[in-house]
Design brief:
Shape: globular
Structural class: alpha/beta
Number of strands: 8
Mean pLDDT: 94
Helix content: 25-40%
Number of helices: 9
Low-confidence stretches: 1-5
Strand order of the largest sheet: 1-2-4-3-5-6-7-8
CATH architecture: 3-Layer(aba) Sandwich
CATH class: Alpha Beta
CATH topology: Rossmann fold
Length: 289
């Protein structure tokens, strides 16, 4: 039996002019699990409670702030100084800086696209892959259903006038941004407001995080059918951004992938209401990969 020492720390990595804020928790020297959040999300959406349950004392869990979120480097609002390829390269640069040869990857939405890219291009760095509420990262998938009208409308409506110096107004805005992406039971306002408050208070520039990921030049596409690492697909039956056929298609494309359907969840990192289902499924996947 391997005996590990407990480790929990936050730091900012200096990576060739870019700063990435990270947090590591769990046993020193244990296999690594890297969490990759969605577009416009800081590490805060992977809550410490979720991380501790995932790690179960057997994994070193790493979460980080994407560029333009949290305490990582920021660009001016509307002018990202990076591309999708840079966002996709950051997880490997992060692992390199920490001296970690390979890791389990869990990616949500945009983070799932990043995780697919890593698994195709550098499979030797990936122990296992978990794709949460995401879609095939490359190819022509026009046959897949579009977002719901409520989600699509968020891209067409003019941006509201926000006083970014008014913390209360910014938190309200951050909560409302999530509302169209909620599941059939509606938004868990208490849970989301707590996360939004934490994120806003520790972010260098919320205005940048709300815009820049979505206007950065896209990265090169990959073919998920080329993935050869153990893969779990977690997808809600009611995802309003990427309806269930997106997850079903991913699971069919990736050899040996397993699909777990969640109920009552929207386009979100699995909330506490489904941890009783999600955590055992993730342990089954992570501990046997």
């Amino acid at each position: 039996m391997t005996i590990y020492g407990t480790h929990r720390s936050k730091e900012i990595l200096q990576l060739s002019g870019t700063e990435l804020a990270i947090e590591r928790s769990g046993p020193d020297g244990a296999p690594a699990l890297l969490l990759i959040a969605g577009g416009g999300q800081s590490m805060d959406w992977w809550t410490p409670e979720f991380c501790d349950l995932l790690g179960a004392g057997e994994l070193q869990v790493i979460r980080y702030d994407h560029r333009d979120t949290g305490q990582s480097s920021t660009s001016p609002p509307g002018r990202p100084d990076y591309t999708g390829d840079d966002l996709a390269a950051d997880p490997l640069r992060l692992l390199d800086a920490l001296g970690i040869e390979k890791a389990h990857l869990i990616g949500m939405s945009m983070g799932g696209g990043i995780a697919q890219s890593i698994a195709v291009r550098t499979p030797e760095r990936v122990r296992s892959l978990t794709l949460v509420e995401t879609s095939p990262a490359g190819g022509d998938h026009g046959f897949l259903p579009p977002p719901t009208p409520a989600v699509a409308a968020t891209w067409e409506e003019p941006e509201p006038e926000i006083d970014w110096a008014d913390e209360s107004a910014v938190i309200d805005y951050r909560v409302e941004v999530e509302r169209p992406f909620a599941g059939p039971l509606g938004l868990d306002d208490v849970h989301v407001r707590a996360l939004a408050t934490l994120e806003v208070r520790r972010s260098r520039n919320v205005a940048s995080s709300m815009a820049n990921h979505f206007i950065a030049a896209p990265g090169a596409s990959v073919d998920p059918a080329e993935i050869r690492v153990p893969t779990l697909v977690l997808h809600s039956a009611d995802d309003p951004m990427f309806p269930l056929p997106h997850g079903e298609t991913l699971a069919r494309m990736i050899p040996g992938a397993r699909l777990v359907r969640m109920q009552g969840v929207g386009h979100e990192i699995p909330p506490p209401a489904v941890w009783d289902v999600v955590i055992p499924e993730l342990h089954r996947h992570l501990m046997h990969s």
